[in-house]
């Protein structure tokens, strides 16, 4: 199935662009930014960011300076915010890249203001206000205090982050929405942003001037209590290396944690936890073979997963034939649940060992004059 004998990760850039449009339509009147931290949630910033830019996205959020540099190379004209702020001594790098730090403490703000003065004048930055996460950001009183007298000049964006927007009806969300509105009122005319993927689906009071989805862009379900409105972006297939028959009572895998309940057919897949597929899926994981869900048999090992393919169609069982570990019918949310984690961790853990393929959004032809693109098509 694959060139390198390993697993194949396929990223659908058309689906990514379509998801951005779905989210933008969900937030009428607000700008739809894109969170592309952690290498665009494992999808690859170098291809994901330009696809989002072509869809119409103009503002991007990353976590680190190094990610901002990768984003700048991918989308040279974009506005790029760095969520983790600005490490001491890095102001010149921010200015060189045109990056905007998200500032979240008095000390950070003072340092940034001082660095800007040394560099010849104020540079745009966002102000992060904590409304319940207790992770990053000024407290509400600190922010209100700063509103009257800011060493920053006017921040380019006022933002906060929701704690449990994906949990329908969580009272904490309503409290955060109200707190953020209170802070926002102290910064008249300031563009503001509160909503992540799930927050984008809450309603107009959570949307302000900008929404900041990440996970939903990559196909994760922002509304876990309802059907997923997003298109799948990531597909993960691994090839069958060997097929074997076992009889009742035989065991499979490390520490013999699976015992054949009867005569079974097993397929060994070329993927393991070293690829980023969590070992914690042992005993719970499934893969699709010929459209049939087949359970894992035994422990997920470093480079291999054993699958009980007894119920799979014979035609789908051959050396080199693919099994799908993430894809249509087996979404990343379910994969996360089966591994005792969330889809976010599955995506961001996707390893570097895969053959990576991108489909849709062909940049080789997209930007070309029509006469060339249309050649041979009448
Ligand atoms: C990661 C992150 C987001 C995106 O969240 P999703 O749940 O992936 O949509 C938005 N804002 C901040 C501050 C973040 O850290």
Q: Any low-confidence stretches, pLDDT <50, length ≥5?
A: 364-378
Q: Which sheet architecture does the biggest sheet show? A: 7 strands, parallel
3D shape: elongated
Could you state the oligomeric state of the chains shown? single chain
Could you characterize what this model shows?
The model is unreliable at 364-378 (pLDDT under 50). Strand 8, helix 8 and strand 9 (192-193) form a beta-alpha-beta unit. Helix 1 (13-26) packs across helix 3 (45-55). This protein has 2 domains: 13-217, Alpha-Beta Barrel (TIM Barrel); 234-341, Beta Barrel (Lyase, Ornithine Decarboxylase, Chain A, domain 1). The protein is elongated. The two termini are 35 Å apart. It has 378 residues and is an alpha/beta fold. The chain contains 13 helices and 19 strands. Pyridoxal-5'-phosphate binds at residues 35, 37, 83, 161, 196-197, 212-216.
Keywords for this entry:
disordered C terminus, seven-stranded parallel beta sheet, Lyase, Ornithine Decarboxylase, Chain A, domain 1, binds pyridoxal-5'-phosphate, TIM Barrel, 13 helices, alpha/beta, 378 residues, six-stranded mixed beta sheet, 2 domains, 29% helix
């Amino acid at each position: 199935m694959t060139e390198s004998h390993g697993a194949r990760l396929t990223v659908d850039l058309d689906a990514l662009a379509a998801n951005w449009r779905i989210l933008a339509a969900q937030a009428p009147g607000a700008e739809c930014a894109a969170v592309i931290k952690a290498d665009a949630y494992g999808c690859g910033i170098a291809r994901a960011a330009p696809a989002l830019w072509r869809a119409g996205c103009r503002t991007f959020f990353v976590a680190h300076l190094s990610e901002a540099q990768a984003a700048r190379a991918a989308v040279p004209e974009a506005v790029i915010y760095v969520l983790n702020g600005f490490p001491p001594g890095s102001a010149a790098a921010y200015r060189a890249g045109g990056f905007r730090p998200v500032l979240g403490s008095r000390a950070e703000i003072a340092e940034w203001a001082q660095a800007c003065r040394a560099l010849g004048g104020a540079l745009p930055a966002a102000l992060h206000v904590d409304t319940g996460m207790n992770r990053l950001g000024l407290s509400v009183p600190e922010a209100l205090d700063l509103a009257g007298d800011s060493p920053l000049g006017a921040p380019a964006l006022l933002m906060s982050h929701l704690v449990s927007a994906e949990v329908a009806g969580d009272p904490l969300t309503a409290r955060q929405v109200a707190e953020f509105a209170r802070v926002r009122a102290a910064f008249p005319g300031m563009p503001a942003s509160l909503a992540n993927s799930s927050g984008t689906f809450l309603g107009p009071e959570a949307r302000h001037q900008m929404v900041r989805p990440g996970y939903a862009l990559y196909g994760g379900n922002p509304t876990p209590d309802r059907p997923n409105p997003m298109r799948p972006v990531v597909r993960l297939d691994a090839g069958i290396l060997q097929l074997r028959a076992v009889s009742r009572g035989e065991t499979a895998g490390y520490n013999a944690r699976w015992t054949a309940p009867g005569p079974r057919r097993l397929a060994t897949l070329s993927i393991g936890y070293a690829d980023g597929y969590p070992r914690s899926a042992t005993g719970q994981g499934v893969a699709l073979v010929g459209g049939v869900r087949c359970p894992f048999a035994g422990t997920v090992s470093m480079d291999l997963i054993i699958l009980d393919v007894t119920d799979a169609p014979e035609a789908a069982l051959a050396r080199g034939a693919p099994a799908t570990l993430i894809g249509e019918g087996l979404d990343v949310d379910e994969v996360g649940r089966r591994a005792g984690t969330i889809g976010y961790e599955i995506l961001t853990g996707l390893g570097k060992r895969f053959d990576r393929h991108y489909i849709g959004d062909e940049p080789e032809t997209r930007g070309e004059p029509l006469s060339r693109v249309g050649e041979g098509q009448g």
